[in-house]
Amino acid sequence: MCNRTNGGHEHWSRADLLRPITIQTHVDPIPEFIIKNALKQLGLTKKDFIDWM
Which domain holds residue 6? Predict the structure, then answer.
């Protein structure tokens, strides 16, 4: 769930996360390292993400 936006960033959180995930929305495409960090925080693999897409 997106809690808030700040400039070119969205801050997402979920009850089971220790901290919110911040995604840059002003950069297209989103750099791979940002996606990898978000997946790590969510406990998901790259395959999980691709299957979801």
Answer: 2-52
The Cα 10–Cα 20 span in angstroms is 10
Number of domains in the chain: 1
Q: Encode pLDDT of 9-46 as tens digits.
A: 888 888 887 888 888 888 888 888 988 988 998 888 98
Provide the β-strand partners of residue 22. Answer: 11
Q: What is the DSSP string of 17-48?
A: -SS-EEEESSSSSPPHHHHHHHHHHHT--HHH
Partner residues linked to 9 by β-bridges: 6, 24
- For residue 31, whether the previous peptide bond is cis, meaning omega lies within 30 degrees of 0, is no
